[in-house]
Design a protein that fits this description.
The structure holds 2 protein chains of 2 kinds. In chain A, helix 3 (about 55-80) runs antiparallel to helix 4 (about 95-120). In chain A, about 50% of the residues lie in helices and about 15% in strands. Chain A has 5 helices and 4 strands; from the N terminus they run E-H-E-H-H-H-E-H-E. Chain A has 2 domains: about 5-50 and about 135-170, no CATH class; about 55-120, no CATH class. Chain B is globular. Chain B starts with 6 loop residues before the first helix and ends with a helix. Chain B is built from 18 helices and no strands. Chain B has one domain. The chains are: A alpha+beta, B mainly alpha. The interface of A and B includes residues 52, 56, 88, 89 and 96 of A.
Chain lengths: ~170, ~450
């Protein structure tokens, strides 16, 4: 791998310890590389200074495209392309279009957002994700520092003093 | 810190209640209209607002019970507001008992099935008379409302006792409250369906819809969430409830958004099934509303679906008090209009039929001739003699013949708005007085810490 990183990371046993440690790191101006948790932790994003995702804006656009596709498509089919009469209804029976329009809106929004998410994050078949420690998918909460960004000794002592149960170094 | 209901708020609320009372009295004494000889407009206004706010109180208790039963904790900082809102069932019990007695004794002519002569000539109404009768109406209303009132009062007093004697480490009160909450859920759920069939759906006595209880329930629920938001914003604005954060209001905003969509879903399901099946006795309900109440019919969808859907879709509009409060106010009015649209067409029709018949109520012919209603009534008379199928044709003809613009029937007039303001002020006064009568936040609820630190 071309761009490997030397990291130092600490494992915490509790998300409250992690939250406190992240706040402390911010106060100490230690540049955190990333935080890994088994589940989403409320209040972590604003402390880390992460911006709100714009994925939902993309979702709205995909949904709107779905709405227009379904409604426009059915309108074209039933009024221009192939007029038919169903149950004595007019050629443009708007109420019966609504369920399909709804379904296609949801479908376009979901599939579009999933694909966008994968593309933006560089995910896909065959991608190997360097796992720092397998236990961060189970019950450990991890703060990782990049040794090229912070003083390794300072980061290590910070991790120990802020309540990490284990501190390790690794190259990923 | 306790809230005190004094000063200008009190004056304004009393002023609003006075306005409502004046409007109600005026609709009783001041209206000289051929359709209103039986005080139809008064009773329609009274029923409309009583049902609307009773349902909101019911839903406040319902959602509180759902939260308690589901081990939810986020709402606990402001649970006194929901307790107070649900206690409005006491007023609802009084209002609906008046309505029940009025129906039992035949003081109002809102319900076609309550007219003995009409039922005698009408096979459909005879078939429904096992459920649509004045005994069921009065006693069903009183008994079910009394049970609901009892349960929400117990939850309230247990919650107060918990704060007095318990602490947040102790669960004995909470366990008892849970039992009451779990009992309330099925009784309120099934009971409200049965009652709303009686109260509102039976105004269109020949018509029925299996979606109706869901539809009105969603309407009440959205209004309840919107009023909760308005009350919380008001109290926050006064400097109270600083522990109710933007996170709590964000969640309420999500409920407002989600249940506005749910309301639309149910509204549309009811419409589309009836539209698609195209069965005469069902479509008459919507034909009447689309033809003669066009503006309200579309405004209903605009206010209650399009506006909350597009305004509250973004994250930040749910977190800004301006937009959230604006949508909440809009939606309360919108669902009040929704109930107007459920009630008035049927009421107007029944007033025509009963007012023009000169039946057992001792009211003769009230000069309908100059309104050009004679043909319609002739058609009705013929239909009453004929079998069921003929009735709908006459119904349609009658609806068509009197599609004139009438304030108070085809559109809410100033008297309707005034009455609404009166009931709204009564509701606010009652809720704020109940909120003031206890601490704003219970320090002894087991979930209080979860709620204080709530984060979306």
């Amino acid at each position: 791998m071309a761009n490997t990183k030397d990291i130092v990371y600490g494992l915490y046993n509790d998300e409250e310890d992690l939250l406190r440690a992240v706040k402390q790191a911010k106060a100490d101006h230690l540049e955190i590389m990333d935080v890994y948790t088994p589940f989403p932790i409320h209040g972590l994003d604003p402390i880390l200074g992460l911006e709100e995702s714009r994925l939902h804006i993309a979702g709205f656009i995909y949904g709107a495209i779905g709405t227009l596709t379904a409604f426009g498509g059915m309108t074209w089919i039933f009024t221009k392309d192939w007029k038919q009469i169903f149950g004595g209804k007019p050629h443009w029976p708007v109420p019966s279009f609504i369920p399909i329009t709804f379904e296609l809106t949801v479908l376009f929004a979901c599939v579009g957002m999933v694909i966008t998410f994968y593309v933006i994050n560089g995910l896909g078949p065959g991608v190997v994700n360097p796992t720092i420690d397998l236990r961060i998918t189970d019950d450990k909460f991890c703060i990782a520092f990049d040794k090229s960004e912070v003083n390794a000794a300072a980061a290590e002592s910070f991790l120990r003093s802020s309540g990490a149960s284990e501190v390790h170094s690794k190259t990923i | 810190m306790n809230y005190n209901l004094t000063g200008r708020t009190r004056t304004v609320l009393f002023g609003g209640m006075l306005l409502g009372l004046v409007c109600l009295l005026y609709t009783w004494f001041g209206i000289n209209h051929s359709d209103d000889t039986l005080h139809t407009r008064f009773w329609a206004n009274f029923l409309h607002n009583s049902v609307f706010f009773t349902g909101i109180a019911l839903m406040a208790g319902f959602f509180m019970s759902v939260s308690i039963t589901a081990w939810a904790g986020w709402y606990v900082v402001f649970k006194r507001v929901w307790e107070s809102m649900s206690l409005f069932l006491i007023i609802g019990l009084i209002l609906m008992t008046i309505m029940g007695i009025s129906t039992f004794l035949g003081w109002n002519t809102l319900y076609h099935w309550n007219d003995a002569e009409s039922v005698a000539h009408d096979k459909i109404l005879q078939g429904k008379s096992g459920f649509l009768n004045r005994y069921w109406y009065l006693f069903g209303t009183v008994i079910l409302l009394a049970i609901w009132t009892f349960i929400v009062s117990r939850i309230r007093s247990l919650s107060l006792a918990e704060e007095e004697n318990g602490n947040s480490e102790e669960f004995s009160y909470h366990h008892t409250i849970r039992k009451y909450a779990a009992t309330y859920l099925p009784i309120a759920g099934f009971g409200s369906a049965a009652l709303v069939w009686q109260w509102i759906m039976s105004i269109d006595a020949h018509w029925y819809s299996t979606m109706f209880a869901w539809y009105t329930g969603a309407s009440w629920f959205v209004s309840m969430i919107a009023l909760t938001i308005l009350i919380l914003l008001f109290l926050k604005n006064k400097g109270y409830y600083q522990n109710v954060s933007v996170e709590h209001l964000h969640d309420l905003g999500k409920f407002l958004f989600a249940f506005s969509i749910f309301w639309t879903y149910v509204w549309f399901s009811q419409y589309m099934l009836i539209w698609y099946a195209n069965v005469g006795e069902e479509t008459i309900y919507f034909k009447e509303r689309v033809d003669n109440y066009k503006a309200l019919f579309w405004l209903n969808l605009g206010i209650n679906f399009v506006a909350p859907f597009f305004i509250l879709m973004r994250n930040d509009t749910k977190r800004k008090f301006g937009t959230l409060g604006f949508v909440a106010g809009l939606v309360v009015f919108g669902h009040w209009l929704d109930f107007f649209l459920m009630i008035r067409p049927g009421v107007k029709h029944t007033a025509h039929v009963l007012g023009g018949h000169g039946d057992g109520h001792g009211h003769g012919d009230h000069g309908h001739g100059d309104h050009g209603h004679d043909t319609a009534h002739g058609a009705h008379d013929a239909a009453h003699g004929a079998h069921e199928a003929g009735h709908d044709v006459a119904h349609a003809a009658g609806a068509h013949a009197d599609s004139v613009f009438e304030l108070g029937y085809t559109l809410p007039g100033f008297l309707e708005i005034g009455t609404f303001i009166g009931f709204l002020c009564l509701f606010f006064y009652f809720v704020l007085a109940k909120v003031a009568s206890a601490s704003l936040t219970s320090s002894s609820d087991p979930y209080i810490q979860e709620s204080v630190h709530h984060h979306t």
